[in-house]
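Quick question: what would this complex look like in 3D?
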Amino acid sequence: MIELPERTRRVSPSRLLELLQRYDCHSLVDPFMGLPTHLNYLKRHGISVHGGDLLEWFVRVGEGIVVNDQTILRDSEVAEIVEMLPGRIYSVDMFKAWEGVFFTEEQCVYLGVWHDNVRNLRSDGQTGLAILGLWRAFCYWLQKTQNPDDMQDIQPSELAWTYIRDTECVVGTNLRRNTVRQGDVLATLGAQRADALFLAPPARNSFRSADARIWMWEAWWQGNPYFNIEHAYRDSLLGARASEIPAYSRALSNILAQADDYRTIIVQTTQNRLGDFEPLVRNARPHVEIVAPHPYEIYLIATK
Amino acid sequence: MTLFQDTGGDPRATAARLADVLAWYGAVGDAACGNPSGFALRKAALGAALAETVSPDEKERPAIAFAGLLHAIGAIGNAAFKKGGDRLSERLARIEAWDVPAQGARICAAMGALPEATPDIVRWQAECWDGTGFPDQLRWHGIPRSAQCLLLADVFLRAEDPDDALATVYLRSGRSFGPDTARAFASWFHLNGGNAPAPVLPIDALAAAPGDDLALLDAIAGRVDAHNGVPGRWQRVHALADATAAIVGVDAAQRAALGLAARLYGAGELYCTDVEDAQFDPLARMGIDERAKNAGAAADLIADNATLGHVAEILRARAEWYDGTGKPAGMKHGEIPAGSRVLAATIAFDTLHEGRSSLRSERGAPMQRIDTAIGTQFDPLVVRALLTATKAHA
């Protein structure tokens, strides 16, 4: 059975918005965005947001909820995603490798069907929304493997339907340009200009203990159940090249040095890692304010 | 003039009084977003009780109680519930309403007396395990268990009966609630027979300083007026009512109660869709029912409040007419509390003076119009004193 971690990274966009407003920032770049629901929140509150990540499915979701200003999925379109369509040939065996290990046979068939249906959507915005909704159904299944008696059995198409329909309510415009891109941190940094840079860097070697719900969904999106997240991170700045403490610190210093054009840098960290980050940030900027609402949610706000 | 009796430096009495003002704040928050009466207090009690089973952190329990009490204060001033201006579409209103917890958290963070964890429990009270909650769309273990306690309490209190609540929590296990949390709820439910505890606030957890209560009361009254689209109204009404009461010779205790009433009466208008001066001329008999309803609502919000309850009588009687034809009780002359007679005339004057432009211009000067209602709607003595007070103000 799969192990789901007991800790989840917490990014609180409402708190981030308060910090941005305090520092009079109206645009933000997040090169480690992960699932960009926080960028969606900031966008809905008028901030121009630009995100980047190495995993493609995060970027696809960003196209649905960050870049996309108005496209939603209507009932008929959702129906065409969640169920097998007559006349279409599906690769129902695509995720057979997961059968009996993580999922039932029926669930694996649905994963194949959903994969094909989503790949056939024409709009990037709709694709992003569908990926987000289906991911939540996928997470529900994984959670249920851990707590089979505590969670209700829900028909796969009904579960997916509910979650995809739910994504509609976060689509909206801020009348500003918002972007997402797939790429390493320095590429995202160089591609955009904004008032603030938000950094929530992954911990050293974190790709080795990545949440299964994250990397398995990338595997689903790639259509490759044997996908290994290490491939995605191997050549990245904070990937295998930064597996040792000095290399990791050098990589972070490099990012901070490259961020000279940003008026404000907000680094989110935890009490445990504060000692590693604070000297680097203070070395890069003369003024650093620490906002620490929780031991596991600490912000270093660096200005010139 | 002091509005509250001196506590003699007793910190517990100071904290108890602040807790009463907070309880009123919670009730006002409920009124702003349409929750039933007493919801916030029940949520506070149940949230804290659930925490004993669900949340491992004992230190957070008082914070959960206060977070439950203040869960809806972010609705006061939120665009989804605010009065005046264009109505939002249903979708936009829903999105705006998602910000109620974050707005509530900001207000709680500004109150130094509350336990430290309170603001973030308020902020994350509506987050769901699967990431579909609001405002932050946190997911899984990123949501504190203390915040999940409040969501459980909310579901329980909104259910038609306790068994429905149990079924709902099971249906939403893995979606709104973590499976462990849902299991802990089931355990609490069976141990307690699904009975919600009686509301008791942990006042010892408040770090109250003398004067906090009145400062908070002023802040709430200001927010209520801004929400109702009549910013600064309580201050105008209070200044004029106090001056009028002094001229009439109202005793100090009644004047103190009147001072509180000026801060509290606006909360009665939270239940209606528009403030009363937007609906009726304050001198029109047609508006009596609406005014009496608002007066009753404001009185009901404090009826069981140990610190503020004595003002309920003044608030409830402010829609009575001097000649006995008012509502709700048809009291006349001296039967109407002096504070109510002063408050009624002052509110009417303020509405004619500061209210919508048609009231200000169409039918003559405010004082002339108030004059026409002497002996019928208003006490002649009060109107003469009000005239003197307005001249002094001018």
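Answer marked as accepted. Chain A has a mean pLDDT of 93.
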